[in-house]
Amino acid sequence: MRLRSVPLFLVFCATFFLIQPAGAQMRLTYSNFFPPTHVHSKLAERWCKEIEEQTHGEIVFNYFPASTLTRPQQTYIAVAKGVADIGMTAIAYSRGRFPVLEAIDLPMGYTSGVQATAVANQVLERFDPEELHNTEVMYLHAHGPGVIHTRNKPIHSLADLKGLKIRGTGTSGEVIAALGGTPVGQSMAETYQMLQRGVVDGSAHPVEANNGWKLGEVAKYMVQNFSSGYTTTFAVFMNQKRWHQLTPKQQEIFTRINKKYALKHGQVWDEADKKGMAFFLSKGGTVISQTNEESKRWAEKSSVLLENYIQSVAKRGIDGKVVVDFIQARLQQP
Which domains does the chain have, with CATH numbers? Predict the structure, then answer.
């Protein structure tokens, strides 16, 4: 009797383990600097939920918004080292680390978030930058044209801007300097208090931030300097070890959902710009448009950044002109 029961027990055990999932449930951490109320934080959470649903719970997430797991400047390294499994941050917060991607942020005359996001992912696909090879990139997204906002001084000309302290990071800071302002490099999370306390005279940011970060409460003027407007590229990275722990089917699910959400982020940037403008105006903000002549002056002043970029990355063995030309060609396409 006992001898017979052993084989039956072994058969039961083998059957039990065969019907279990191929691997245990994988729990991933996701670090995002956007606050939980921001539309791009909410969209990141939806991305997590959709992957959980599509993998039938094989993949689950612990989501950390508002820089509660990693600081924006440290997110890429934190993901590469496994401190966080996935992270979203702005490449401008790690100046010099992403020389190819930095070309996307240059004042190219972007018209929308959808356009900027499409170009960003085309650059990623075309050049496969070596600077990203320590992680697995999920997707990129980018906002519509960033413009200058000020606390209490209207900006009608370059002369009005000269010497003003304007918050800006990465390319936005360089745009400010090229236009005659004094850039102050701080993250978006610090901008509200800096404007409120008068630490800076203004900020360069997309219109959406007037609502998303409530900057419309502390900025009174917006100059529509679209000709010198920049974008900011945001990247979602995943730790390579964790990526390779996924099954091929799970990787396919991630890839499919990534393409969907890259477009969603671009669309959301544009929707958020509209809400940002409405919020700014509701707080009594004043919008200052530019004449064609003034717009050309600002474009001419900021165009030096393209040549500076090409010369700068050449020292690192990168043909920046090819990257810039690629972006400009894509912007000419309908």
Answer: 24-143+232-273 (3.40.190.170), 146-231+280-332 (3.40.190.170)
